[in-house]
Amino acid sequence: MQRERAPENIPTGLFIGGEWRDAEGGATLPVTNPATGEVLTHIASASVADGKAALDAAVAAQKDWAATAPRERGEILRRAFELTIQHREELARIITLEMGKPLAESRGEVNYGAEFLRWFSEEAVRIDGRYSVSPDGGNRLLVLHRPVGPSLFITPWNFPLAMATRKIAPALAAGCTSVLKPAAQTPLTALYFAALLVEAGVPAGVVNVIPTATAGAVVSPLLSDSRLRKLSFTGSTEVGKRLIRDSADQVLKVSMELGGNAPFIVFEDADVDAAVEGALVAKLRNGGEACVAANRFLVHESVADEFTTKLTARMAGYVQGPGINDGVTIGPLIDEATREKVSSLVASAVAEGAEVKLGGEAPAGQGFFYPPTVITGVPQGAEILNEEIFGPVAPVVVFTDEAEAIQLANASEYGLVSFAYTRDLNRSLRLAEQLDSGMIGMNTGLVSNPAAPFGGVKQSGLGREGGAEGIHEFLETVYVGISNPLATL
Fold it and tell me: What is the value of pTM for the model shown?
């Protein structure tokens, strides 16, 4: 296999105050290709001092950026959208090299990520308020919204572009400056995107990017700095809880998009073929490494055999290999630790009585591959039904009626998304009111859309990203009481 290298035009320094610079002391971190385990390149690794410098730059730029006309902020975002689409192939190749997904999926991520730039370019000019008369007629009530201020973004490795644009776009639209700390596994996409933001006209200091191998050490002082006013994090619930605790001293405004354990429910009246197609999207998109990936397949007893047989046949047809290769439809997992976790969950389920219908064993050779896997007969209480798998494994559980399906679906501390297939409209409406999820995919395996509010309930997080709601995560509400102007007549 030919050794892949990172494209030479990717910046490898920190981006602070509009300038590319080396890390303090010249510290670097390696970026690895998960398809081979080989190092793609080395980039600057931010220190505590570098993190402070990035926040200094964001604070210095905040006043002018907040005062920039909404239309101008929107036009900059629109140019960023156009540049992102223009550079889709370069971005897709970078995403595939550092994250592993097939090129076709990386192109899809670029399109999806770019749409946040376009959506919030339009929302920038729609930040409104209200003017009303108090109930007693004594005062006038003026309500306005203003930027919350300098924001810190911590993004994961699984969608290295989209998770950045989903945070940066509404912040820029609202008039907030930011510091982005991308995941250490996939920083190249964020660095390349930062260069596109410069080309789009984002002023110096408005967006700063600081990859680091010592995230805890760099982030902690920022959360303790009174000048930081907002934290947005996407990642595990465990880390999210710790960040919420660390944010409490400064009473930061926080957005948390955390773990998931999505149920995928197939009812007896479902179009089984359509459900299988939706299951492939919900389970295997991004190789299952997504917080919205279907984690538990709950199938009515009358269609369980048909659904499982068809799903197994379709998953068996996926071609696994390096995402950069033609014809590959599923890539590697991000690293060996993730593969070991997936392997352990499958082995534990088998030990508890589950049966492997497809896959179930990691292949030998280089790269962090795990095959598409289907397991049936998974007992209630099995670890694989309670843990976020983050891999291409579909555990199937059989249910007998709607009440049981809802009970099984809600039997989780998480509540990010649920999927359901049924032809019954009234059942769909009942599910919308009874499933403990921030999002529901009804007869579809894909719910993410920049025009919709993304987020969960319970331990899946706080706040929403995208939609009309997304920009309000970066705005403070200010009320001004005005004495009755008619009283002086």
Answer: 0.96
